[in-house]
Design goal:
mainly alpha
């Protein structure tokens, strides 16, 4: 997997960045060679940002959805992926504020 998925700035076009990270992960050798989430999870865990729980949850949701439903996008999927994205964005904002306070 490429190192371009190692970090993301959630300012500006964060949704596009997260989409690109998920696309890269799903089309990587680790993603394409794994038939189950358990098999893929151990492979992805060694790469950033998937060494963080929220990113791993996001990838797990996308991975299982693609394997089970392929192109079907329903309200539950949109809601679940939206909640995870907002959690990641909130975490990034809190980290940014903490760095600002330390200065």
């Amino acid at each position: 997997m490429s190192s371009s998925a190692s970090s993301i700035s959630l300012t500006g076009n964060g949704k596009m960045g997260v989409s690109m990270i998920l696309c890269e992960a799903m089309t990587s050798a680790e993603g394409e060679e794994s038939m189950t989430w358990d098999a893929a999870k151990s492979k992805f865990a060694r790469f950033k940002p998937f060494d963080a729980p929220l990113y791993m949850d996001l990838l797990g949701l996308a991975f299982t959805h693609v394997r089970e439903c392929f192109i079907v996008i329903d309200r539950n999927f949109i809601y679940e992926i939206g909640v995870l994205y907002l959690s990641i964005a909130t975490q990034a904002m809190i980290a940014s504020l903490n760095r600002f306070q330390e200065e």
